[in-house]
Design a protein that fits this description.
Elements lengths: L1 E2 L14 E4 L4 E6 L3 H11 L8 E3 L3 H5 L10 H4 L6 E6 L6 H4 L4 E5 L4 H10 L2 E5 L11 H4 L8 E3 L10 E4 L4 E4 L6
Length: 184
Amino acid sequence: MFLNSNNYLDYDLKNKIVIFPTDTVYGIGCLYKDIDSIRKIYDIKDRDFSKPMVILCSNFDQIRTLIERDQEIPDYIRKHWPGKLTVIFFKNSSVNNLITSGKQTVGIRIPGNKISLDLLNKYGPMVVTSLNLSNEPAITKFSDVLKFENKVDFIIGSVNLDAEPSTVYDLTQKKTLRQGEIKI
């Protein structure tokens, strides 16, 4: 079902898979506690279960519910959020191993896109990955999104995006894993 700027917050996302624009590329995601939908996303993308996914949050309070209690979020990270920065933290027990491929760390981002933030504010953290088949480029053109129409519950948005993927910074090791627009 296609949703637009007038109705995308009117539907229940529980046990649903949704495609939506982020501030970088189109993402495919679900609520972070919805393990069945997470498995379906791996299937839709033909993604290897050894590749972890990211959790998007709308604020620092949501992040705190996902990471180990004693971890700090340094100012040099805070100043880039919302934005095109994914940070690797030590996860807490609320984050299912399926999301992290069994790792004790989790990638988290606060996106700078209004639709993304609205969804996260209303529904809470979401497991999200780029919309594409595994090992293919992330989707930025809405016409390419349509190829996934029969595989998901909702599609939000209809614009073309033109941003590169986010910078990925591993706070646990203090190193950049993927360089994007933001420099740490």
